[in-house]
Amino acid sequence: MSAGALAVTTDDGRRTLAPPGRRRVTVLARQQFGAYAVLRCADPGGPPPRPGQFAMLATAERWGGGDGERPFLPRAFSVLRARPGELEFLLEDVGPGTARLAELEPGDGLWVLGPLGIGFSVAASELAGRRALLVGGGVGIAPLAILQDELVASDAAVTALLGFRDGLHAAGAALLRDARIATDDGSAGHAGLVTDLLTAELDRDQAAIVYACGPPPMLEAVRALCAGRAVPAQLALESGMACGFGACFGCVVPTRSGYVRLCLDGPVLDADRLETALTPGAGH
Amino acid sequence: MTSAAASGSATAALPTRFCGIELAHPIVNGSGTFDAIAAQRAFGPALVEQFPFAAFVSKTVTLAPREGNPPPRLWELPAGLINSIGLPNKGLAGYLTHDLPELAALPVPLIVNVMGFTRDEVAELVSAFAERDEVAALELNVSCPNVETGLIMGADPAETALLVERVRPLTDKPLIVKLTPNATDPGAVAVAAEAAGADALSLINTIRGMALDPRTHEPWLGGTTGGVSGATVRAVALAQVYDVAGRVSIPLVAMGGVQRGRDADDLLRAGATLVAVGTESFRDPLAGARVADELTRIRRPDARPGARARG
């Protein structure tokens, strides 16, 4: 990221190693996109994340250990976008952690541990002439933005299909280029589910690879759809995490080969590793 | 196993002797709160270079492999959390083949935590590790509240005594008995463990707790109940450590809600020899090193700040 930061990648280029301690970064801006806020931070010492990797975030002030109230644990966020020396995260105020993060103002301190986990595979062998279909739902569009940046930079064919509950949330679609939108209430774009858009795309041309992130029912619909058509898919899942680096064993999800720690072996999993994307406790 | 001087951890300004093992400082990890192998996947060799603990206590090993409890496994509390992990591990054979060689390469002594469902199983585990030079000490998990039978041995002084008497002759290595706080009188269990030949005691393990799903009002955790840890248990830990320290003469590894140097200092003043950091490592992987640094500033205000041991 910064010229001095040495990035080491492992796991076939899908993981950039993180420095072992959390680092205090400074919030540069908070910009509202409908129901969402984008938090932009200066991260001069951080290595560049791979698309789909995440970070554990906690505000530097009034986060556990002080008043003794929640939030206590850091919260896992996919990287929305990375530029040299900067990181962006997408927030939706849905609980005590996200509420506290959404209060941050420019100049405030933020603890960041990351980048963590294994991101999307965008190897040429993976794409193999297929076009990339990015399928996002709600705040789950976040890792698709950094993924789109990378795919566009490598001249890959990319289509973004994003689903939201209503027009207020659909304002988040501005974070990706040329996104096609579906809303539950029909207030923007297609009235219905984002998987309707995916079905139409695959009907038109099945030579595609699907990258998806969103609520568990959406991911499960994407998984089933792609499995039925033998279309390869990579799903970025969510699970409650205490640590983000494999220490607590709390974030396991069931796969065909048993439980895996989502923070360590995910959060992006090949869809064919899953019986179902409806993982217990996710989306809570 | 290496000497204190080889520790890559925070500071050597508080050298500590525990059951004959020389440590750079008194801060270790609680069993099951840090996976040094997984952490190297996330952080690479930098994790070993900046290893945050003076000794490493590995996650509980059982005879047979265990997949662990069904998710969800975590519930956040005000200043703490409930976990219901269920002791996933590769089993003894898998641990010896895959984990032990990697953990033996850490720059600090290795303490292996074991649990069996019968006294014979514990004996088999203790015997297996008794022969391994890579292992500095053994910790007996008699207190995990997540697994039905784990509760029984450590909740009763007579049961604890029978277990320790059974395994004591099997090894010369230091035997640490990890007490459960979910007992009528943990101090009585401590006295029984000492009389039966334990070399040290560790406490507290997590306190049994539960949460209901706010939507369904059914138990949230896949394991129904779990163990409470974090800052919210600190006062309970201090009281139990203080009580046990007054009733036994063997060294104590104290833990429960340690977030700062002064929390560790409190537990040392209550009678502990070592202090373990657990849940705080979830919030910051290098919390153990920070606690050791803060403790050094409290205990050795003369020590040069930032002086670090390098291996």
Describe this structure in words.
The complex is a heterodimer of chains A (284) and B (311). Chain A has 284 residues and is α/β, with parallel strands linked by helices. Chain A folds into two domains: 9-116, Translation factors (Elongation Factor Tu (Ef-tu), domain 3), CATH 2.40.30.10; 124-273, Nucleotide-binding domain of ferredoxin-NADP reductase (FNR) module (Rossmann fold). Chain A contains seven helices and 17 strands. Chain A has a seven-stranded mixed beta sheet, with helices on both faces. In chain A, strands 3-4-7-6-5-8 form a six-stranded antiparallel barrel. By secondary structure, chain B is of the alpha/beta class. Chain B has a single domain (4-71, 90-210, 228-299), classed as Aldolase class I (TIM Barrel), CATH 3.20.20.70. Chain B has eleven helices and 14 strands. In chain B, the strands form three sheets. Chain B has an eight-stranded parallel beta sheet with strand order 3-14-13-10-9-8-7-4. Chains A and B meet through β8, β15 and β16 of A and α1, β5, β6 and α10 of B.
Short description:
Chain A is of the alpha/beta class and 284 residues long.
Chain-averaged pLDDT of chain B: 91
How many strands, which pairing sense, and closed or not: the largest β-sheet of chain A?
A: 7 strands, mixed
| Record field, number of beta strands of chain B | 14
Query: What is the C-level CATH assignment of the largest domain in chain A?
Result: Alpha Beta
| CATH architecture verdict of chain B | Alpha-Beta Barrel
Q: DSSP helix count of chain B? A: 11
Keyphrases for this structure?
heterodimer, A: 284 residues, alpha/beta, Elongation Factor Tu (Ef-tu), domain 3, Rossmann fold, globular, B: 311 residues, TIM Barrel, eight-stranded parallel sheet, four-stranded antiparallel sheet, 11 helices, 14 strands, disordered C terminus
